[in-house]
Specification:
By secondary structure, this protein is an alpha/beta fold. It is built from 7 helices and 7 strands, in the order ββαααβββαβααβα. The N and C termini lie far apart (39 Å).
């Protein structure tokens, strides 16, 4: 079990309308220093489909895509103990401080990418932000029960806020 600090800067600006929260970056994302970097994660494919755009490939393109579509992205956890990328191994959570992000951006709705993110948000963050989150099915390849098409049906709700 390794104690790991989250070092990826949140993506947002004053025009961001929704905030999508993961739990904690995967090993691949930590190595690349950017969100949802594992090639099997369907996050970018899903969002680009919902926004009617080509799937961004580079980190620069992904940042531009998020800001252009008024989407903020971050994670619930600032640091924790974790084995590899396993959400189920997460212990000793210290949540991120959302004060600056929420005072800068006019976030209409917070969404959690998966059950772990949602449960951690409810436990550690919701009382501080006073904003309820909506739980969406995880885009992780570990969520094999959800095809990309099924994810799109559940995630389509984000378009109501953009």
């Amino acid at each position: 079990m390794e104690h790991v600090k989250h070092e990826i800067t949140p993506i947002y600006d004053k025009d961001s309308k929704i905030l999508i929260l993961g739990s904690f970056p995967s090993v691949k994302s930590r190595e690349a220093n950017f969100f949802y970097h594992h090639p099997q994660n369907r996050f970018w494919k899903l969002l680009s489909s919902l926004c009617g755009e080509e799937c961004p490939q580079t980190v620069t393109d992904k940042k531009s895509f998020l800001l252009r579509n008024h989407i903020a992205v971050w994670d619930v956890i600032a640091s924790c103990e974790i084995e590899g990328s396993s959400d189920s191994s997460i212990k000793n959570v210290i949540p991120n401080n959302f004060q600056e992000l929420l005072s800068t951006a006019n976030i209409l709705q917070i969404f959690c990418n998966g059950t772990t993110s949602y449960n951690l948000y409810k436990k550690h963050v919701e009382k501080l932000t006073a904003q309820e989150a909506i739980k969406l099915p995880s885009t992780s390849p570990a969520n094999a029960a959800f095809s990309l098409q099924k994810l799109e049906q559940h995630w389509a709700i984000i378009k109501n806020y953009l």
